[in-house]
Amino acid sequence: MNGLLGAVVDGILYSAWLFIIAVGLTLIYGVMKILNMAHGTFYAVGAYVAVTLLGWWFAQGLPPWGIVPVMILSALVAGLVLGVVVERGILARFAGRDPIVLLLVTYALFLILEDVIKLIWGVDPWIASDPLWVFGQVEFGELIYPTYNLFIVVVAAVVGGLLTWFLQFTAKGKILRAVIHDPEVSRSMGINVGRWNLIAFITGSVLAALGGAFTAPTISVVPGMGVEVVVMMFAVVVIGGLGSIPGTVVGALIVGFVRSFAVHYWPELEVFSVYAVMALVLAIRPQGLFAGVELRKI
Questions:
Q1: CB 10 within 8 A of CB 239
Q2: d(CA 40, CA 277)
Q3: Nearest Cα to Cα of residue 17 among 223, 159, 204, 225
Q4: How far apart are CA 225 and CA 110, in angstroms?
Q5: Quick one: which of 257, 258, 293 has its CA closest to 273?
Q6: I need a labelling partner for 106 at 20 to 30 A (CA). Which of 40, 52, 112, 224 fits?
Q7: Residue 17, Cβ density class (10 Å: 0-12 exposed, 13-18 middle, ≥19 buried)
């Protein structure tokens, strides 16, 4: 029973973490039709900025209650800087080019940013585990988890709720949905599509950095950590459907629970299980579970 409960709890925690990271990629693709290969590096930069600021925070003897705002600030700073520099400085220059060209550009960015991380923070691990124990522990039956882990679930719920509210119930959200549906018609109606592209890219970058910032206290922050999340992140958006936020929720839950149960019961099949589920979904529905009908202009 404890094994089953542990698999379920771990699946929820892992799904929440995956959703925070992958939903930013989904938003960017939905608006800009760019499959951002550098998204995992944005996650890594958020983790590095967070662990740096957390180390300074605790070194100053400042109160523990401030660590959550510090991590949110870390994500905002990292995501805003990366989003503006990458979108305005690079991607805007390739607007309208073939999607394969944009894919290669973001892959080149991924390689460049990985080396930039090493130049700034070095190659040694960075650790800031204090937040993991500051808030104590919580029990699920006979299992004990750091209470901090629940923040990731809360953050995922808040992010999903805010995005849904913005897109469905606000005037600005309806404008963004129009840009997603048909940027050319939106442009003809006087909507500044370039500005919305920038807003979407910055938001997606901040979400990736947010995932990294809240993950930083639970792991050793090392070079290459962004590479590790790329496979899982793309599995989520491919299963759910590129550009679909509800699909990202379902994709994160599927990948999270499949991986969790594999780790608990068939650890030798951990990575294979995710690929197997992804292959099965693509064989049945190649566009993903929640992908909408795409219009083709002729």
A1: no
A2: 21
A3: 159
A4: 12
A5: 258
A6: 52
A7: buried
How many helices (H) does the chain have, and how many strands (E)? Answer: 12, 2
* Tens of pLDDT, residues 42-94: 999 999 999 999 888 888 888 877 888 899 999 999 999 999 999 999 988 88
What whole-number distance in Å separates Cα of residue 263 and Cα of residue 184? 46
Q: What tokens appear for 3 in the block?
A: 């094994």
For the entire predicted model, the pTM comes to 0.90
pLDDT per position as a tens digit, 207-232: 999 999 998 888 889 988 888 788 88
The encoded tokens of residue 292 equal: 């909408």
The residue written with tokens 């109160």 in the block is 63
For residue 11, give both structure tokens.
């699946």
Which residue reads 């029990």 in tokens? Answer: 139
Banded pLDDT at 294 (limits 50, 70, 90): low
- pLDDT tens string 133-151: 777 788 777 778 888 888 8
- What does the block give as tokens for 123? 């190659």
Q: Under 8 Å CB-to-CB from 46, ≥6 apart: which residues?
A: 74, 75, 78, 79, 208, 209, 210, 211, 212, 213, 216
Strands 143-146 and 137-140: antiparallel
- In the structure encoding, which two tokens stand for residue 146, read together? 């750091």
The total of other beta-carbon atoms located within 10 Å of residue 248's CB is 32
Q: How far apart are CA 50 and CA 44, in angstroms?
A: 10
Express the helix, strand and coil content of the chain in percent, nearest 5 each: 75, 5, 20
What burial letters (b/e) apply to 76-87, b meaning 16+ CB within 10 Å? bbbbeebbeebb
Token representation of residue 143 = 């299992």
Cβ atoms 202, 84 nearer than 8 A = yes
Q: How far apart are CA 100 and CA 102, in angstroms?
A: 5
What size, in residues, is the chain? Answer: 298
